[in-house]
Amino acid sequence: MTSNLRVRTTVEYIIYKLKSLNFTIKPASGHLSPAKANYKTTKSVLMDNTEYGIVYAVHIITVQFGSVVSKVCECLLRRGPLSSRDISRLAESEISHNQVKDILYLLIQHNCVQAFSIEPPDGSESKAVVQYLVLFNNILHRVRYNKFSRVVNEELGRECGIVLDGLLSNGRLTLGQLIERDRDSEKIGEIVIRGSLQKLVAAHFVERIPSPEPVLGNKEQEPAKKKGSKAAKILKEPETLEERVLEAAIPVEAIRFPHVFVQDSNSSIADNDSNADNDSNADNDSNITEGKRKERDVDLSDPSNEVIWRPNFEEFIRRLRHKACVEIVKERRDEGCAIVLRAMLEVGRSQEKKVKTDKSVPMSVGSIYEEVITTIPGRTMLQERVEACLDQLSATSSYLPAFVIEVDGSYIVDFKAIISIAQKDEIEAVVMRRYGKEAFRMFRYLTMEGRFVETDRIADAALTEKKDTPQILLKMWQDGYLHMQKFAVTGGTGYTPPFLLWKVNKLIVTRQMLDEMYHASLNLSLRLTHELESEKELLLLSNKKDVVLEGAYEERLIKIKAKRLLLSSTRFRLDDALMLFANF
Amino acid sequence: MSKRKRADPKLSGRDPNEAHEKKLLDMIRSKQGAGATMYELKGDKTIPPTMFTRLVQSLKKKGLIKEIPTMNNKGHKHFLAMEFEPDKELTGGEWYIDGTLDVSKIEDLKAKCVMILERHRHRVVTLDVMCGYFVKEEKLSVDQTKEILKNLVLDNQIMEVKSNGLNEFASTRIGEVCYKLTGKKSGNGEARGGAFASIPCGACPHIGLCTPDGVISPTTCVYFQKWLEF
């Protein structure tokens, strides 16, 4: 609202100025850069899967499961939820219906696809068709398994890490399968596995698999809600189909993370309830409503049924988000502030309902201090020091926003402020490197202003040559980093060039950055494959025990290893930055 | 055939161009600091078009008008009455000399500003102190000083903070605008280097043209080649 008023003020000022010179003004439409002209700022298009996001996800699937699986995956990514028949019809290469079904079961097993159906309208005799929704984020999580494993190893120890690795590499497993798997590899023992799994579930790192095929209520059937009714305000309806499906599929907390679970470790590998292995089940389930699904979930807790477990990516992303926040505060403030923030996140974590929470719950100084002194680095901190750190975290400047908000003696962590400062650093670093120092100043000025500003005013504020300013701004606009508004001027004597107003549109810039980062991740992966392929024979030779490489060969081997290390570590760090935009 | 006798200017007592000159001068004066271009002057149809150049030269000789080059286009001259100073739109503002931005002066002033902050005991300097120094030593106006400080904020070299009267701000009034250096030198953290900006794709001007199997691709990329040279 305020920004709109500011825009109006600038525009009105120009109109006033020109009218005094007998000009007539015709506002032209907003100009998105040619590349971004098809961007809309509606919520539906602001999902994480940009064009290169899809290409990158398909690449990940191709590398891990092969090209046939990736064709099915690409079809779902590009066209949205489809039935298995539609997939076999629409997938680019000829894949039989049975093959499609097998591929879908594989993708469900690896948590990349979720089946669902929509309740047919009342009176309709048609059967609900099972549709398959691809989970874009879960595909991208596949390159983050090392990070997830590290979180568990640090927090719960090596045994839990081994159990989690089993789940990550197999997608979904029962306790029996986990024990069976252990017999062939690590041999940590049945009791340890059982205990580790219990710990993982208690820490929410592992969850019971969601309902194999939830049935969504038909939206058209739902009665129209009264405007402004209390219920409508409290129960906010999920907006995207993916959110609706996931919400319907995930069981209630007590079933999702049971405190006590007795398992029959010798039960068969196949799980009768999994739609991955039993198609008829899907047909039986297709006619139940969401309410009925919840009842069925309760039945699942019956110990005679073998429960299937899977990694809970939501919790991993939450932990990585918290870790990233602590790192950002450590870099931008100091070690003390980072310790206090870590304690605050620990105190408030159980209250967080979703990953992308903007603000934490309010916390008292006492509760924060209690948590601080339980950690090794915080043990030496006095309450005075903790309070000083909280003051430091609440301070604002042109450089940093407040990371913590003080309300009536309580403190709230402002996640959004912390994450957005890291996003800003990433974007500004790219602007600086790609367009230079002048562009960097202009971009920062426009970000600070948050409204449309005329070219000359930008040049004045950034102290850049007025003649060069439009070219620099145009370059950034062409690449989608700026939003431009043109004001055509007619009348007066002679031709008057149109006024150009510029603005940093955070949504467009964020989406642009995200797309380029997906593109860069893909490029790093392709380049690594290319480099390893070019030295394939040498690498094979080096793995042989009886072969010792010398001279030029040794040098080549050192080089390829250095390249591999650089490309892999860069991709790992780039993924951290990518999560700032896509997942945090 | 009788020839018409040319009127003797000495006898008439009044220059025939004087009326046109006066009209032209009034027109230029009415434009004040914005000045008028020859194109705009020629818009007046009461003065014969062939006389404009002569009239303007005459006014210039008499010291009644001056010619100012436009900052955006040096060939595009503006005529101003002698008593007016050219507008900011014409000259570009105080930081422009002969239509060119005085970058070296700006950079010099910015360096001095950073030096003051580095040498200060608490590394915190108020706006008043900064203005006092630059107005006295560098003959800058308060607005110019503010512009320099704002530019350094945009460069991410310094930050603007409001004093809370504690610690390093003990010698300042609460709520007073102060400036501090950013980065480790002043005990602050630093902005992240940027994971994306540190790889070739982050700085690549052709990323929009790059495709896995295209002419520009990660496998044939020269920037990658250079980056991976060990």
UniProtKB/TrEMBL annotation, chain A:
Signal peptide: none annotated. Keywords: DNA-directed RNA polymerase, Nucleus, Transcription. It comes from the Eukaryota. InterPro entries: POLR3C_WHD (IPR055207), RNA_pol_III_RPC82-rel_HTH (IPR013197), RNA_pol_III_Rpc82_C (IPR008806), RPC3 (IPR039748), WH-like_DNA-bd_sf (IPR036388). Pfam families: HTH_9, RNA_pol_Rpc82, WHD_POLR3C. Residues 427-503 form the DNA-directed RNA polymerase III subunit RPC3 winged-helix domain. Residues 57-116 form the RNA polymerase III subunit RPC82-related helix-turn-helix domain. One of its GO terms (molecular function) is single-stranded DNA binding. It is found in: Nucleus. Residues 196-420 form the RNA polymerase III Rpc82 C -terminal domain. GO terms for cellular component: RNA polymerase III complex. Residues 212-233, 268-301 are annotated as: Disordered. Residues 290-299 have a biased composition (Basic and acidic residues). One of its GO terms (biological process) is DNA-templated transcription. Its main location: nucleus. Component of the RNA polymerase III (Pol III) complex consisting of 17 subunits. DNA-dependent RNA polymerase catalyzes the transcription of DNA into RNA using the four ribonucleoside triphosphates as substrates. Specific core component of RNA polymerase III which synthesizes small RNAs, such as 5S rRNA and tRNAs. Belongs to the eukaryotic RPC3/POLR3C RNA polymerase subunit family. PANTHER family: DNA-DIRECTED RNA POLYMERASE III SUBUNIT RPC3, RNA POLYMERASE III DNA DIRECTED -RELATED. This is DNA-directed RNA polymerase III subunit RPC3. It comes from Capsella rubella. The lineage of its organism: Eukaryota, Viridiplantae, Streptophyta, Embryophyta, Tracheophyta.
Automatic annotation (TrEMBL), chain B:
Its main location: nucleus. One of its GO terms (cellular component) is RNA polymerase III complex. One of its GO terms (biological process) is transcription by RNA polymerase III. Coiled coil: none annotated. The keyword Nucleus applies. It is found in: Nucleus. Pfam families: RNA_pol_Rpc34 (PF05158). Residues 8-21 have a biased composition (Basic and acidic residues). Belongs to the eukaryotic RPC34/RPC39 RNA polymerase subunit family. This is DNA-directed RNA polymerase III subunit RPC6. It comes from Capsella rubella.
